[in-house]
Design goal:
The complex is a heterodimer. Chain A is 30% helix and 15% strand. Chain A is α/β, with parallel strands linked by helices. Chain A folds into two domains: 333 residues, Alkaline Phosphatase, subunit A; 40 residues, no CATH class. In chain A, a hairpin with a 5-residue loop joins strand 5 and strand 6. Chain A is globular and about 55 Å long. In chain A, 58% of the residues are buried. Chain B is mainly alpha-helical. In chain B, helix 6 packs parallel to helix 8, helix 6 crosses helix 19 and helix 12 packs across helix 13. Classes of the chains: A alpha/beta, B mainly alpha.
Chain lengths: 407, 485
C-alpha cells in the first residue's frame, strides 16, 4: 500500500463510516486561526468529482442561443415535465438538484461557470493531477494544494476523532502535513462503469471473455428488464450521501477535523449521459443529497462552512453520436455553505458560437479555478496571497484570488 | 538478437509469473532474448529450494502437532469434567442462585483466540511460497513448482496433519526435484507423510501381514490407485483393478511414525513390516519379490519409466503451459525427451522452452487465480509480509491454497478459470486491489511494464480513457494482456 504521506492509524471506532464508494481524508489537527477569537471556527470541505463533470448539463446556459442545439437531445429546458430550475435570467440548474437550488435561493450556494484548471489536454489522470496538486502542469503528484495550504496554518490540538485509515487519500490532501483518512477498505463489487468498460474491451479483443463476463454480470437479464447498466450508477448515489453524512458528523464534533477532502467517481459520461433524467441526473442527485447531508450534519457549524466542488475538466459542448459528451475544457465549480456569499452565478461568459469554443469544441475557460480556490483559502482560512502564490499554487502569481466569495 | 515484444509476453506470462514493476526491466530483458530469459532459471535448480529458519521439517512439525493434539485432548477432557461438575452443582442449588452464577457481559466480544500451531504454520508456509514467487526473476521455476505441486497435490481439508504439512511437503518432496528426475520426485512424494496421510496409506494393512492376521483392518487401495491414475500412467492406460490391488499390497507398510516414535522419529516415513503384505506380487506383468520397502521402490521406479507415464506427464505439462488442447506434436516431442532421458525433468523443461510450438501457440490460456494474484503483486512490486490478502483472493476465486477438492488437483483449463461467475469475481478482486493503489502510479506506464508495444491499441485506449487511476488499474489487471497467457 502506498503510504508516502504521514497518516495515522487509529482504532476503527466508527464502523458506520466503512461504507460507500468514495474516499475521504481530513487534516489531523485543529488549526489555530488568527480569527478564531472573532468567533468564526471555519470548516472547509473540498469535493473532487473524478471523471469530468459536464458543466453545461449541471448548470445550463439556457439563455445562450447556441446551447439547445449543441446539447441536443440532452439539453435542459426551462419548461416541460422536467423543467430546470432558474438561477437567473441566463442560467438554469439541473432539476435533480433541488437542495442546491434551495441553498442558492437562501444565498448559501453559488456557481462559478466557464472555469478550468490550467490543464489544457484531455487525460483524466493528468487533469486530476493538475486539479489536485495545484501545479500548473501534470506529473507532480507528491503533494496536493490543500495539504500545502494546511502546512501554512498554525497547528493547534491534535484532532482526537478516530478515523480508520483507508486505501488512499485524495492527492489534494496528500503531503507533509499530517492527515487522518478513511476510504472504503473493500469495495464489495467493482463499479458497473468499470465492468462495462471491460466488457467493451473484451468485445473488441477477446469475445470468449466478453461472453463469460456478460454472463457473470447477467447483462442479458438486465437488458431484458430494459435497463442500461450505464444509466444506473447504483453504487455511487447512496455512497455520496453516506460519505457526506459521515464526514459532516465527524466535522461537527468539537474536536473533529475542520478541513476535509473527498472524491466522488463516475462523472465520465461518454454515452447515454441523459438530460433531465438519466445517468448524470442520478449522479447529480447523489451530489445534491451530499450537500443536504453536509448542511444537516454540520448543524450550527454550517454557517462557518464553505464547500467547493471541482472537477478535472469539462466536456464537449456538442453531444457525440452516443448521446454523451467527450472530454472538454471549461466547466463549473460549485460553492455551498453558510460562509459562502451565494445566490449568484459568477461567470465571464464566453458564448457558445463555434468560433468562441475552445478549439471549436469545448466551453472556453474564462476563469482560472485557482483564482476561486485562492479566494476561498485566503478569506476562509486566512492564508496569505504570498503563500498561495508560492507553495500552495506554485507559479501562479498572475492568478489573483477571487474577491468576495464569502460573507 | 532482434527485439521481439510478442515473444516477451509469452516468456513473461506463459512461462513466468509476469513482469515485475519498479525498475526490474523484465519486459526489456524478455524482449531482447525471450528463450534465454526463461531458460536461465533452469541453470539454477537450487533456486527452487526454500530454506528458512521460520519453517520446520515435517518431523518437527509432527512433534508440534502431536503435542498440540494432546493439549487439546486434555483441555477437552478438563472442560467436560468441569461442565459435568457444574451440571451436578446446579441440580443441587436452589433455583434462586442461578442468576448469580454466570455474569454475562453484554457488549464484550470474546477476544479472537491466538492462531494455533497449525494455522501459524500454514500461514508461514504460504507466505514463504508467495514471497518466493513474488521475487523470482522470470518465475519459470516457481511455475514448475506450482505445476508439480498441483500434479502431486495434497489437500489441507483432509485434516490437521495435511494442513500443518502441506508446505513442508512441497518444500521437501517437490522443490528438490523439479529439475531432477521424475522417479526421484515420485518416490519422495509417495513416501512423504503428507501424501501417505492424504491418501490413507497409513491405514492400509496387508491381509496376510502380521497385523492383518490379527485383524480388524485391511487393504486400502486409495494411494495405489491415485499413483497410477493421477501421478504416473493416467487413466485408461492399460492397468487393471488387479494392478491397483497389487500395488496397494506392495505399498502396505508405507507409513509414518506416530507420537511415541517406536518405529522411528515421530512424523518421519517408516516401513512397518508388520503391516506389509508378504510374498512376491505381480504388477503390470512383472514379479516383485518381497524385499520390504525396496519392493515398492522398485515398482515405482518401473512405473515412472513406462511410456504411458511419459505421455501422461508430457500431456499435462503442455496443457498447463501451452493450450487446453495440447498440440500433439509438442506432446510427442516432450514424451520422447522424457523417455530418452529417463525422466530428466530439466531436459523436459528445456525441451518445452526450446520448442517453437510452445512459443507459436496463441495465448489462449487464462491465468489461474494464483498466477493472477502473484502477477498482480509482482506488477505492484510488492513483497508481502502477510499472506492474508492472497489467501483471501484465492478463496474468493476458487483456488484456495493447497486445498483442491480432490486428489486430481485444481483444473488446468479455461473452463475452470474463465467461467462467468469467476470472471465477475476476478473483476471485483481487481477493483479491490486497484482501490489501494496510489496516485503516483501511472497505469499507462504500468501497461508498458507488462506489455509495452505488445499491448493492443484497444487496451491502451481503454486504460488511457479510464475515469480514474484506480479504474484504469482495474482494467489493466483484467485486460487480455494480463489475463491471457
Amino acid at each position: 500500500m502506498e503510504c508516502c504521506e504521514s497518516r495515522t492509524s487509529l482504532a476503527v471506532t466508527r464502523r458506520w463510516l466503512l461504507l460507500g464508494g468514495a474516499s475521504f481524508a481530513a487534516w489531523a489537527y485543529l488549526p489555530k486561526f488568527a480569527r478564531a477569537a472573532g468567533g468564526r471556527d471555519p470548516r472547509l470541505i473540498v469535493v473532487i468529482l473524478r471523471g469530468a463533470l459536464d458543466g453545461l448539463a449541471a448548470v445550463a446556459p439556457a439563455g445562450d442561443p447556441d446551447y439547445a442545439d449543441l446539447h441536443g437531445t440532452i439539453a435542459l429546458t426551462r419548461d416541460g415535465p422536467h423543467a430546470a430550475t432558474e438561477l437567473d435570467s441566463f442560467f438554469v440548474l439541473h432539476p435533480s438538484m433541488p437542495q442546491f437550488a434551495r441553498m442558492y435561493r437562501e444565498k448559501h450556494a453559488a456557481v462559478v461557470h466557464a472555469v478550468a484548471t490550467p490543464y489544457r489536454e484531455r487525460s483524466h489522470f493528468d487533469g486530476q493531477d493538475v486539479l489536485e496538486s495545484g501545479f500548473a502542469g501534470p506529473g507532480r503528484v507528491q503533494s496536493g494544494w490543500l495539504n500545502r495550504a494546511l502546512a501554512a496554518l498554525p497547528r493547534g490540538e491534535r484532532v482526537s476523532s478516530a478515523l480508520a485509515v483507508g486505501a488512499t487519500a485524495p492527492l489534494v490532501l496528500r503531503g507533509a502535513a499530517p492527515t487522518v483518512g478513511w476510504a472504503p477498505v473493500n469495495l464489495p463489487q467493482a463499479a458497473d462503469d468499470t465492468a462495462m468498460r471491460l466488457f467493451d474491451l473484451y468485445k473488441h479483443r477477446d469475445p470468449v471473455l466478453a461472453q463469460a463476463l456478460s454472463q457473470g454480470l447477467q447483462l442479458d437479464k438486465i437488458a431484458a428488464r430494459g435497463e442500461d447498466m450505464r444509466a444506473k450508477p447504483r453504487n455511487g448515489i447512496g455512497a455520496m450521501q453516506i460519505t457526506a453524512r459521515g464526514v459532516a458528523k465527524l466535522m461537527a464534533e468539537e474536536d473533529g477535523p475542520r478541513i476535509a477532502a473527498l472524491a466522488f467517481d463516475g462523472w465520465d459520461t461518454h454515452a447515454n449521459e441523459g438530460g433531465p433524467v438519466g445517468r448524470l441526473a442520478q449522479l447529480l442527485s447523489g451530489l445534491d443529497g451530499a450537500f443536504a447531508e453536509f448542511e444537516s450534519g454540520l448543524g450550527a457549524h454550517w454557517r462557518d462552512t464553505a464547500i467547493v466542488v471541482a472537477t478535472e475538466f469539462g466536456r464537449t459542448a456538442r453531444i457525440n453520436g452516443t448521446q454523451g459528451t467527450d472530454h472538454g475544457t471549461g466547466t463549473v465549480a460549485l460553492l455551498a455553505g453558510g460562509a459562502v456569499k451565494g445566490g449568484r452565478v459568477i461567470a465571464d461568459w464566453p458564448g457558445l458560437k463555434t468560433a468562441n469554443l475552445y478549439q471549436n469544441r469545448d466551453l472556453a475557460p474564462t476563469t482560472d479555478l485557482r483564482a476561486v480556490l485562492k479566494g476561498l483559502l485566503r478569506d476562509h482560512l486566512g492564508i496569505s496571497e504570498r503563500v498561495l502564490a508560492g507553495s500552495v499554487f506554485p507559479d501562479s502569481a498572475a492568478v489573483k484570488p477571487m474577491q468576495g466569495l464569502l460573507v | 538478437m532482434a527485439r521481439d515484444p510478442q515473444a516477451a509476453l509469452v516468456a513473461l506470462n506463459r512461462f513466468g509469473f509476469g513482469a515485475r514493476g519498479g525498475a526490474s526491466g523484465d519486459f526489456i530483458n524478455a524482449a531482447s532474448d525471450p528463450r534465454g530469459f526463461v531458460a536461465a532459471e533452469l541453470q539454477r535448480p537450487a533456486a527452487a529450494l526454500i530454506e528458512s529458519p521460520a519453517l520446520q521439517s515435517t518431523s518437527v512439525l509432527a512433534s508440534e502437532l502431536f503435542d498440540f493434539q494432546l493439549e487439546q485432548k486434555a483441555k477437552r477432557e478438563a472442560d467436560a469434567k468441569a461442565a459435568a461438575a457444574k451440571t451436578a452443582m446446579a441440580s443441587q442449588e436452589p433455583a434462586a442462585m442461578m442468576g448469580k452464577a454466570a455474569p454475562t457481559p453484554t457488549n464484550v466480544r470474546p477476544p479472537k483466540p491466538a492462531p494455533n500451531v497449525i494455522q501459524r504454520t500454514f500461514r508461514a508456509e504460504a507466505l514463504a511460497r508467495i514471497q518466493r514467487a513474488s521475487i523470482a526473476e522470470c518465475g519459470f521455476l516457481e511455475r514448475l513448482v506450482t505445476f508439480w505441486s498441483n500434479h502431486f497435490c495434497v489437500s489441507v481439508s483432509k485434516g490437521q496433519p495435511a494442513r500443518i504439512w502441506a508446505g513442508a511437503f512441497e518444500r521437501e518432496a517437490i522443490r528438490p526435484h523439479v529439475l531432477g528426475h521424475f522417479a526421484d520426485m515420485l518416490k519422495a512424494v509417495e513416501q512423504h507423510p503428507a501424501m501417505l496421510f492424504f491418501l490413507d496409506n497409513q491405514q492400509s494393512i496387508g491381509p496376510n501381514s502380521r497385523a492383518g492376521q490379527r485383524g480388524k483392518r485391511g487393504l486400502n487401495e486409495n494411494l495405489a490407485r491415485e499413483i497410477m491414475e493421477l501421478h504416473t500412467l493416467g487413466v485408461g492406460s492399460g492397468y487393471t483393478q488387479a494392478d491397483v490391488v497389487a500395488l496397494a499390497k506392495i505399498l502396505t507398510g508405507w507409513t509414518y511414525a506416530g507420537r511415541q516414535g517406536r518405529l522411528g522419529e515421530a512424523g518421519s516415513f517408516i516401513f512397518n513390516v508388520n503391516a506389509h503384505e508378504p510374498g512376491t506380487i505381480v504388477l503390470l506383468g512383472k514379479s516383485y519379490p518381497d524385499n520390504n520397502v525396496a519392493q515398492g521402490e522398485a515398482a515405482l521406479a518401473d512405473i515412472a519409466r513406462r511410456p504411458a507415464t511419459a505421455t501422461f506427464i508430457a500431456t499435462k505439462l503442455v496443457r498447463h503451459f501451452v493450450a487446453d488442447d495440447p498440440p500433439p506434436a509438442l506432446v510427442t516431442h516432450l514424451a520422447d525427451v522424457f523417455r530418452k532421458t529417463d525422466g530428466d525433468l530439466r531436459a523436459v523443461s528445456h525441451a518445452l522452452v526450446g520448442a517453437d510450438d510452445a512459443w507459436r501457440a496463441p495465448m489462449t490460456k487464462m491465468r489461474s487465480p494464483y498466477e493472477f494474484l502473484i502477477a498482480t503483486g509482482r506488477l505492484m512490486a510488492q513483497i508481502p509480509e502477510d499472506p492474508g490478502r492472497y489467501l483471501y483472493g484465492l478463496n474468493v476465486l476458487g483456488q484456495p491454497l493447497w486445498t483442491p477438492a480432490g486428489p486430481n488437483g485444481f483444473a488446468d483449463t479455461n473452463a475452470a478459470w474463465a467461467a462467468p461467475e469467476g470472471m465477475k469475481l476476478r473483476l471485483d478482486i481487481a477493483a479491490q486491489v486497484a482501490s489501494r493503489i496510489g496516485d503516483n502510479r501511472d497505469p499507462r506506464e504500468m501497461l508498458d511494464l507488462i506489455a509495452a508495444d505488445a499491448a493492443s491499441s484497444d487496451t491502451r485506449q481503454t486504460i488511457a480513457r479510464a475515469e480514474t487511476r484506480q479504474q484504469a488499474f482495474a482494467l489493466l489487471l483484467m485486460s487480455p494482456e494480463f489475463q491471457r497467457r
